[in-house]
Every structure is written in C-alpha cells, then in structure tokens.
Amino acid sequence: MKRGFEFLKLLQENNNREWFKEHKPEYDLIKEENTKFFNQIYSELQKHDSLNKIHISRIYRDIRFSKDKTPFKTNFGAGFSRVKPLLRGGYYLQVGPDSSFVGGGFWAPNKDDLFRIRKEFEMNPEEIQQITSDKNFLKYFGKLEGEDGVKNAPKGFDKTLPAIDLIKKKQFVVRRRFTDQEVLADDFQKEVLLTFLAMRPFFDYMSEVLTTDQNGESIL
C-alpha cells in the first residue's frame, strides 16, 4: 500500500497522460497488488455475508461531462455488492492520500424503495433510531449520512414527525474515514473488515424493510 500511496501522490502532481504513460509499468505492478488486497477483503467479508461480486474501480476518469478534465483518479476503490433481491446495501472501500474511507449503504434508492423507507421511518422510527444510536454504530460511523431530498418534508409527510430528519433524506449511507497513517498500518485490513461488519445491523434492517410491504408481508 505504501508504494501505491507514493504513486498517487506523484500522480496528483502530474495528472496527465504523458506522465502516466511513462509510469505505466509501475502502475501495473501497483494495480496487481491492489487487486490482491481487494480480493482478500472480499474473501474475508464473504465469510460473514453473501456477496454477489466485487467491482474494482478503474483509474481512468470519465471526463465527458465534467469541468475537471484531469484524466486519472488519485485514489483506488472497490465496491462489494450483496446478493439481491433478499439482501440490500453495498460496501465500498477507497484508499488514497488524505481521501481514504470505508462506506456503505443506499446511495440512490429508486422511487419505490425511497417511499417504502420513508414510510417505515414514519410508522416505526424507534428501530432505525435504536440502530443509529447503538454504541458500536456510533464508534465506527458517528451518524447516518446522506443528502436531503427536500428542505422541509416530502410530499405526503408531516414535517413534525419524530423521524423527519431521516425522512427528508434521499440517501442513507455510513462512512468511516481513515488517516494515511491508519491505512499504512499493519492492521488496516482488519479494521476495514470490522467496519464493514459494523454496518450489518443497518443493512439487515433495511433489507427487511425493502423486501416487505407496509404490513410486514414479504413482497418477494
């Protein structure tokens, strides 16, 4: 990982195709090391959850619709998806200088899923509040994150509801940030796995919500 960080720091200063082409052999070796690292995490996580696949991000940026025309990402990332439709939620790991984190959750639920989540928060806010106030959740994540979709309350929801702060959200994600020193420590892989496992109560709750109707009957 140390060699990868050193490469990314140089890439931050030389984010152009000419420099990358010259250092491509070095990148290929680092890519091979990263793939092994990400697959080790996948194998360990698979012992505790049912995963569908691993998606390792490419270093090449899609700049077609971006004002930032730098061609390369300055971090390495991998996503680990759970087996649908029974299990919901996805794990994500990003490593890079001053930009490392472990995250997961529901980045862009579709219209029906978003409505179902909000209705559950409306009808029974205690369960999600208990999960997000648990000492283990607070230790690893601090709070449930995600952008608000509306300023006051979604259409059809009372702005005085006890869980209105959660109901306003259009994303439901958790994140634990790591310093460069923590990433380069010997126990980083272990800490990544422990952080992923700390997401499970949240994931399992949301999976139950999204596989049942408002009466608690299975929709699968």
TrEMBL record:
NCBIfam families: TIGR02453 family protein. InterPro entries: CHP02453, UCP028451. It holds the Pfam family DUF2461. This is TIGR02453 family protein.
